[in-house]
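Lecture notes, unit on protein representations.

Consider one protein chain, 170 amino acids long.
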Amino acid sequence: MLRLFLILITCLSSSILLAQNTAPYSLRTKEKVGYIKPDTARDNPNFTVCDENYIQEYYQVNPQYKEGVISIKNYFKPKLEALNELAESDGIIVIRFVINCQGLTGRFRSKYFDENYIKKDQNTALQNALVDSISAMGYWLPGKFNDQFYDAYQHIKFRIKDKKIIDVFL
């Protein structure tokens, strides 16, 4: 019985460890659902990635802004009053972007979801202001794995309640 229990625990822990792979892998970026295609009409022409074919997800290489989420929240604190003036309706705004291997940001895309998580075309001015604010944040610590820096996707979300941003989170 003990032997069966140990075998079961070993099998379960092996499966869990394999499922937790966060190392960068060689799936071509352009084959991934979340790929942000360069758009010459909206993107900064001076922003480049180090390897267009292998942009990693944030959870694989962990790019970071200063000390992390608290630094992001502190960055937005003094801006909230002005940003709240632009809020039209409650929900969540998601800003997704790329941090290149040099810690520079670009390819910003935004979406607004109402309280029922339905994508809507509202809060456009607020979305644009948030993109401008994030692009002005400056240097990010780029994603890194095994002493190699990677391009990585990142997103910042803003929860709006009573036409006020009540939370900034990743």
